[in-house]
Amino acid sequence: MNGLKKSQSASWDALLQHVSKAVVFLDDFSAECLHWSISVDSVFKAGAIAIKDFNAFECGEKGDTKAVFVLSRQLNDDVQDTICDIVEASQFHNCTVICTSKPIVNQQNAGEKTVFEQIQQRIEYYMKYKYARCSVSFLPLMEFSVCSNLFIVPAFSQLVPMFTTDLRKIKGLSSKAGEHSDSDIVNDVYFEMLPSEMQTEYKLMISYLDDLCERLEINEDIYCIGATSQQIATQLAALPSAKLRRKAASKRASLVVLDRTLDLAGPVSHASETIADKIFEFLPRLKGHTADVAIDMSMLCSNESNNKRSVLSPGCLSQPEDNTCHDVLNTLIMSKTKESLMEVNRQIVDVIAKEKINPQVSMKMGRGVDLLKSHLELFNVKKSSKAFEQNCGLLQLSVACLQSLQQQQSFDKYKLLEKMILQAKSGPTSPSACLIDSYKDNAAEKTSQDAEEMLRSLVYLYSLHGTISREDEDELKELLTDYVASNNEQMQSYFDSKQGIDAIFEQLNNIGMAREHLKQFRNIVVDGNDVFPCTYKSFIQHLLEQIVDSSKPELTDLQHRSTGLRDRLKTSFRMFMNVSKPRPSDHPLLIVFVIGGVTCSEVKAVNEISNKSNQEILLGSTCFLKPSDIVDKVFSNNSNNFNL
Question: In angstroms, rounded to a whole number, what is the distance separating the alpha carbons of residues 213 and 236?
């Protein structure tokens, strides 16, 4: 992780050298990377005049002569048009465009000139100053580190891995299972068969992973599991520029790419292990961000004498310049709820003692929510403005903990339902019958049911146990149809007719069949016995436990992608010689990249596995998942799906 942080630091230092006396334009993903990496203050300290959103309605003020654009997407025609609109409405003499994706991704119909040179020439045409100059260059600024073993790449936050039914559509086959098994379908779909928009998105991710390995100076063995991951891994292994890079690399590592859709039970569950998961579930996202939340700080900032509530900028989790906050956030992600709450209370008590706030109050150490609330109330800006200002970052994290734990109590009934669905695997009642009985009881008692919660419970059922019987599915459809009939307005963002309900259950069956072609990792429920009940073990945790297992069990479902002649020779000799099969545990560094997002509980599990093994495990993904993300991406009419 130190190598990645050094690379990130060097890239941001290089960017700051460009911003002196400049107006800086950032798209959402670049702004989020800056938010977590160096903070806005660092940009102004480096001499920037202003920071603005990257859109065609923005421009420089009178007298602004320099602009810097930091863009996380490829420089296609739409992006170029926006840059030209901004410079045409301004008076810039000098313009710098920083693209965070590699030049090869932008190399489309470039001809004799590179695409960067073409863009540079086009922008200079729209700049009004006679001697105007523009430069276009690449800087790797696509990811940011959240904690000690996790990095996020927000540019891919909307990417949803393919289901096997999507592959059937690409192959032109029926969406129903037929002559071809799911494993055959996964292996028979080639990259060139994918829709052009999907190919472009995948190429961007392939380019990013290649650049990541280059910055870490590693020659990687590539492994994959899942339909989308297989496409990404195959193309990365065969990438011409990657072959040259691997020859010059000084270190060895393993890269495992896997699909989020193989396990959606964890992200939609209410039984989260960490406070950080609860924060992401219950607090709204910070606008334009994929890995931060908006924290309501009014309990410490509101003026009680004023009846009208003033508008406040929300707090957030990211405090890149505060080491204490970084350690606390690490605890919230890596520790169980009780341990985290005790640590937050301890930090607040230490600050109260240090700042000598109201020494007459007796300070108690503990992990109670009410105790934390009483401690935080001492920091009201009217009472202790100086202490509030000096400890603002820690207070934001503490308030986030308090608010998420207070809201959690109203969702205990859903946690109980999930427990019944989980335990039903070893009981006389089927898991689907537990959900049906719950829906019927709510209907009989005329208890209001939340649309999102209903869909979450369905996703949990199908992802945990797979597909269900036709009779139970028809009964669930009927119950859901009756609910829609009486609450159509609430459900209209997901479906608006009987056909919509059929589409929802088609997606649910896709989720249920996501692991159908697997042998070793098909189950994510650990069977119970007379002493211990059934338990859920996340797909990521199960996979990594098998990878680092000292007995080296065979990983039948994990596919290895040969990256050169040496690997191919090893594969051939293995047929008639005693040559060991490559394993992700062969090298000191293991990079696990999850396409589709991760939960904080999974980050915690990965960290615990890494601490018990001799291998450093670096986890990367596209976003932190909220349960509502799964519902929106899988069911919403507005989900970002490619035309298949």
Answer: 11
Residue bearing tokens 């009985």:
437
Q: What are the pLDDT digits (tens) for 234-292?
A: 999 999 888 889 998 989 999 999 999 999 999 999 988 899 999 999 999 999 899 99
| Model confidence pTM above 0.70 | yes
Nearest of 69, 74, 72, 73 to residue 123 by alpha carbon? 69
Residue 175 is part of a domain; what is its CATH number?
A: 3.40.50.1910
Structure tokens that stand for 160 in this block: 């949803």
133-167: buried (b, 16+ CB within 10 Å) or exposed (e) per residue? Answer: ebebebebbbbbbbbbbbbbbbbbbbbbbbbbbbb
Q: What is the 3-state secondary structure (H, E, C) of 403-436?
A: HHHHHHHHHHHHHHHHHHHHHHHHCCCCHHHHHH
Range of the domain at 288: 275-410
Measured CA to CA, the distance from residue 206 to residue 212 in angstroms comes to 10
Are 181 and 111 found together in one domain?
Answer: no
Ordered strands of the 94-99 beta sheet: 50-53, 23-26, 66-71, 94-99, 133-138
pLDDT tens digits for range 39-82: 899 999 999 999 999 999 999 999 999 999 999 988 888 999 99
Collapse the DSSP code of 52 into the 3-class scheme (helix H, G, I; strand E, B; otherwise coil) and give the result: strand
Go through the chain and tell me how many residues it has.
644
